[in-house]
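thought: user wants a sequence for this fold. calling inverse folding tool.
action: design(structure=
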């Protein structure tokens, strides 16, 4: 007789039958059951205990599992940074297989963006800045940056993201997000030398604009036009990108 226990089917046999041969092609019950995906059960076996055992191990996919993966990813990215966190480590912390992480989030970059709760994919918006080459890259970057921040649909979520810098687990996330997902790839695509140094200098200008114009609202910078800001900042950005560094 077969019964269901979770996703497994149980073959119930009498006492002593588990070790004797049956009239099923001369095959031992254990071998017969294993060949058909059954679990051999004798009287006295705790079905409750077996049901509990079927729930151990990797958890199946579900909305709750997705949320757990995201929570563990956010915690690990915050404590170990982007480079120090692997998809396998996130999967282990969430109690799932790496394949399930990829199923829900695709690549590590996409999982990181989900952990950041970014309102857009900066790779799609900002990487084309580098397609025109190094000449004028500072102005193109700044105009694109200002367009994103002056759009209320993206500004409000971005402000919430920036404010996470002041949270205990937010600084690493925001720093890695800005450098790893935004400025780092631009520097790489532009082919600049000393990319980490140059892009950190670029970051100092852009984050300064965010703080003064959008977070604090200091005038006249807060109400300055794009052209005014480009005239003031683009030459400095361009110098950071291509001029010799002392």
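)
observation: tool returned 246 residues.
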């Amino acid at each position: 007789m077969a019964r269901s226990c979770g996703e497994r089917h149980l073959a119930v046999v009498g006492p002593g039958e588990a070790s004797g041969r049956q009239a099923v092609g001369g095959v031992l019950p254990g071998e017969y059951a294993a060949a058909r995906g059954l679990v051999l059960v004798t009287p006295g076996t705790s079905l409750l205990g077996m049901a509990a055992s079927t729930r151990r191990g990797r958890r199946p996919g579900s909305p709750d599992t997705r949320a757990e993966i995201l929570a563990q990813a956010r915690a690990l990215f915050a404590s170990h940074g982007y480079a120090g966190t692997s998809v396998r480590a996130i999967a282990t912390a969430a109690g799932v297989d790496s394949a399930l992480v990829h199923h829900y989030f695709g690549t590590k970059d996409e999982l990181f963006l989900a952990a950041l709760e970014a309102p857009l994919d900066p790779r799609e918006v900002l990487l084309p800045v580098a397609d025109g080459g190094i000449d004028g890259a500072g102005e193109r970057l700044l105009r694109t940056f200002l367009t994103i921040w002056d759009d209320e649909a993206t500004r409000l979520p971005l402000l919430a993201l920036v404010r996470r810098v002041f949270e205990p687990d937010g600084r690493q996330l925001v720093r890695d997000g800005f450098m790893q997902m935004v400025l780092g790839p631009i520097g790489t695509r532009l082919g600049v030398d000393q990319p980490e140094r140059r892009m950190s200098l670029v970051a100092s200008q852009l984050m300064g604009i965010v703080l003064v114009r959008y977070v604090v609202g200091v005038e006249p910078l807060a109400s300055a036009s794009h052209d005014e800001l480009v005239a003031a900042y683009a030459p400095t950005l361009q110098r950071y990108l291509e001029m010799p560094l002392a």
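thought: summarizing for user.
answer: Here is the designed sequence. Residues 63-116 form a domain with the Arc Repressor Mutant, subunit A fold (CATH 1.10.10.60).
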